[in-house]
Amino acid sequence: MAQALADIPDIIDKNLLVGLNTADDAGVYRLTDDLALVYTIDILTPVVDDPFGFGMIAAANSLSDVYAMGGEPKIALNIIGFPAKDDPKILGEILRGGQEKAKQAGVTIVGGHTFNSDEIKYGLSVVGYIHPQKIITNAGAKPDDVIILTKPIGVGTIIQSLLLGRSEGIDFKPVIQAMTTLNKTASLAMREIGVAAATDITGYGLIGHLVELAEASKVGIELWASKIPIHDGALEILAKGIFEPGITMNLSSFRSQVDNKGVETNLGSILFGSETSGGLAIVLPEARVADFKKKYQNQVPVIGRITKENPGRLMIIP
User: Fold this and answer.
1) What CATH class has 146-317?
2) 28 closest CA partner among 59, 70, 63, 62
3) Does the reported pTM lie above 0.90?
């Protein structure tokens, strides 16, 4: 993506508060001194067989970008690619799932666009509100801040095992629960206590999104591998030799900016795995972690810290 954007001229607009420059989760555009729009779009191919469940997951995934910025999503458009030969009832169930999750978020779906495609694709284009002085970006991390993570990782690996029919013994229910859970509560908590930076963990995986945060904030990151929550069964799947494509993609994109200080191979690999509707990685002063947990009413692990050394790089330690 960086290569594709390299020749695109910079956009000069004093009201564009967050654009392409920091690879953030969503764009932010100021309307007045007290109101800005948070705008994002995302689209997925199916990660589960159930059309209704897929619709919920894809919608939660799209809404997450607004939550990561500290925004409040308000309206959305459906975007769906659907094979002309397929049963339209499947299309209806996908849209019903998306609408159900949008309703839970307090978001009104106002229309959308459907196009013919070889495979099913679905997501939302979402508009949210935010105060221009209360934007949470990936560029505000400071040395000695810590990083917390609100959902386990390993979704891409478990999905790959399902696609290959090799998921024996894996309980998929917690993974579905995680993917369909909105990041709304975590976003509200971080807005209330005030945090330094945040990003949601999706296609680029935990490592990729944290590398982008390190680059945007001009800091280093020390990631504690043993503290990172991982869905049950994901490491066992890797041990069987099932290697999801997202790991390969993200290794190619981000490995040059990562130093592995002796972390076991499978654990090191899964940190690069793609996530779908993942959690928020939130950066905040260590003294505010307890306040966040109280507001969030869930346990969240501290998985690393921000350093002034090695800006733009990430160090993984056991």
Assistant:
1) alpha beta
2) 70
3) yes
